UniProtKB/TrEMBL annotation:
Residues 1-19 form the signal peptide. This is ABC transporter substrate-binding protein. It comes from the Bacteria. Gene3D superfamilies: Nitrogenase molybdenum iron protein domain. The keyword Signal applies. Residues 23-284 form the Fe/B12 periplasmic-binding domain. Keywords: Signal.
Length: 284
């Protein structure tokens, strides 16, 4: 028995040493938040520009000033592990990193409740803490059940508000979210209905598509609202006042990293959006 306990203690010590020796680079806000949620934030040495949460991650160096990635920019931080979303690392950069004996784990994110749990566990397995991953998944499931029950109760028998999500980086760069997108999923889970059902993913924004969709609510990331000059400026955009959202001045601004987390903060995300929708449509 003593030998068994000694072996277990040695394994735990070895695991802790290995965790401390890791140098992780995370290349999306959801990945970064998940690694921190698993208790390995101290092992993260650099992130991408989208990783602004938690505060400790926001203070870390960035591998690039924008979304463009280079092998040199990543390797400068001497990572032992790079975690990246599928499609974000160019093939040449990925090859260079792996030829340099740097482990790269590419993660595909499914925008659903089940996908969030799989995402957490995949990252936990990649960083070497599978048991912690199971614990975080179970904890997230409990919270999700509680939040989903609240939303179901509060929306029972009520008409779902049509929500149009606009991605904006100034008036010259705008697109709207269709079916199958992360925003489509989070809007549905929060008790709303995506106003765009004619196409999948994202397509360029047009005044015609806005008026045709006639949303009850217009949703944007906080930086999108700022890039367009604020909520009052959005209400003055062509066609907006022809929609129910425009007439009722229903513009919602939300934190981007929270809204599309689909990981450890998914329950927080859908509750926050649900509360915003409830607040602006209370007299509907």
């Amino acid at each position: 028995m003593k030998k068994f306990l000694l072996c277990v203690t040695l394994l735990l010590l070895l695991h802790n040493v290995q965790a401390k020796e890791q140098r992780i680079v995370t290349l999306s806000s959801a990945i970064t938040e998940t690694v921190y949620g698993l208790g390995l934030g101290d092992a993260v040495v650099a992130t991408d520009v989208t990783s602004v949460s938690p505060k400790a991650a926001a203070a870390l160096p960035r591998v690039s000033k924008n979304r463009a990635l280079s092998a040199e920019g990543i390797m400068a931080y001497r990572p032992t592990l790079v975690l990246a979303p599928e499609g974000d690392i160019p093939a040449a950069v990925l090859k260079h990193l792996r030829e340099s004996h740097i482990e790269v784990v590419v993660l595909k994110q499914e925008f659903s409740e089940r996908g969030a749990y799989q995402f957490i566990q995949q990252i936990a397995d990649a960083v070497g803490v599978p048991a912690m991953g199971k614990s975080v998944v179970n904890r997230t499931k409990v919270t999700m059940r509680e939040i989903s029950a609240i939303i179901a109760k509060e929306t029972a028998g009520k008409k779902k508000p049509k929500v149009l999500f606009i991605y904006a980086r100034g008036t010259g760069t705008m697109s709207v979210a269709g079916k199958g997108s992360s925003l489509d999923a989070v809007i549905e889970m929060a008790g709303g209905k995506n106003a765009i059902q004619e196409f999948a993913d994202f397509k360029p924004y047009t005044t015609e598509s806005l008026v045709k969709a006639n949303p009850d609510v217009i949703l944007l990331f906080d930086f999108g609202v700022s890039s367009l000059g604020g909520k009052e400026a959005i209400l003055k955009m062509p066609g907006v006042k022809l929609t129910t959202a425009g007439k009722e001045k229903r513009i919602i601004s939300m934190n981007a990293s929270l809204l599309v987390n689909f990981s450890t903060r998914l329950p927080e995300s859908i509750l926050a959006l649900h509360q915003e929708l409830t607040a602006v449509t209370k007299n509907q």
